[in-house]
Design brief:
Structural class of chain A: mainly beta
Helix content of chain A: under 10%
Number of helices of chain B: 0
Helix content of chain B: under 10%
Strand content of chain B: over 45%
Largest sheet of chain A: 7 strands, mixed
Number of helices of chain A: 0
Oligomer: heterodimer
Distance between the termini of chain B: 41 Å
Number of strands of chain B: 11
Largest sheet of chain B: 6 strands, mixed
Number of strands of chain A: 11
Radius of gyration of chain A: 13 Å
Order of helices and strands of chain A: EEEEEEEEEEE
Order of helices and strands of chain B: EEEEEEEEEEE
Distance between the termini of chain A: 37 Å
Structural class of chain B: mainly beta
Strand content of chain A: over 45%
Radius of gyration of chain B: 13 Å
Shape of chain A: globular
Shape of chain B: globular
Chain lengths: 114, 110
């Protein structure tokens, strides 16, 4: 059973460009979460999605960030007009929601803004 | 606001030297407390979920325990391959998000 997949693993963008990060959950999981890990910081929750629905976006910056999880295809985290402060590791997790609450994480996308 | 504090920030052990990592938390109604292991450049790897005070879980050289205010991750006779950052997270009742501590970086020397 393949784990959570994220791509790209590394992404370099110049200030002002757009970054698109993709996440495919584990097979059978329909709940997806995005977290950000800044250097020397802990993991911070950004958004929780189910298919075609944003359930909790309380951790998302109000500007430039958006997320979606369409009926078909991977979940996308989109960052418009990136700034240097967006440089971080972005992790996606998925959960089976079958009575157990643990989340399984992907390998992450490391975004560098130059 | 839900909070997680892990101590120590870093811990160096000799192979075979047992020790414990601490995770103190405040949460508005605990649904679960989670332990993860994270290797450099990789995503967190799930280890344990604890749901109620008094619960214990074991896996190989690791044992996690839970009280109403803190959790401990006990490492018995560690090996160099146990070197990693160990993360603790809580999930409040009625919420899906995990609130993480900053982690304990464990180094086990041969």
């Amino acid at each position: 059973n393949a784990g959570v997949m994220q791509n790209p693993r590394h992404l370099v963008r110049r200030r002002g460009q757009e970054a698109r990060l993709r996440c495919s959950p584990m097979k059978g999981h329909s709940h997806v979460y995005w977290y950000r890990q800044l250097p020397e910081e802990g993991l911070k929750f950004m958004v929780y999605l189910q298919k075609e629905n944003i359930i909790d976006e309380s951790g998302m910056p109000k500007e430039r960030f958006s997320a979606e999880f369409p009926k078909e295809g991977p979940s996308i985290l989109r960052i418009q007009q990136v700034v240097r402060g967006d440089s971080a590791a972005y992790f996606c997790a998925s959960s089976p929601h079958d009575g157990a609450w643990e989340q399984y994480f992907g390998p992450g996308t490391r975004l560098t803004v130059t | 606001e839900d909070q997680v504090t892990q101590s120590p920030e870093a811990l160096r052990l000799q192979e075979g030297e047992s020790s414990s990592l601490n995770c103190s938390y405040t949460v508005s109604g605990l649904r679960g407390l989670f332990w993860y292991r994270q290797d450099p450049g990789k995503g967190p790897e799930f280890l344990f979920t604890l749901y109620s005070a008094g619960e214990e879980k074991e896996k190989e050289r690791l044992k996690a325990t839970l009280t109403k205010k803190e959790s401990f991750l006990h490492i018995t006779a560690p090996k160099p391959e146990d070197s990693a950052t160990y993360l603790c997270a809580v999930q409040a009742a009625g919420s899906e998000k995990l609130v993480f501590g900053k982690g304990t970086k464990l180094t086990v020397n041969p």
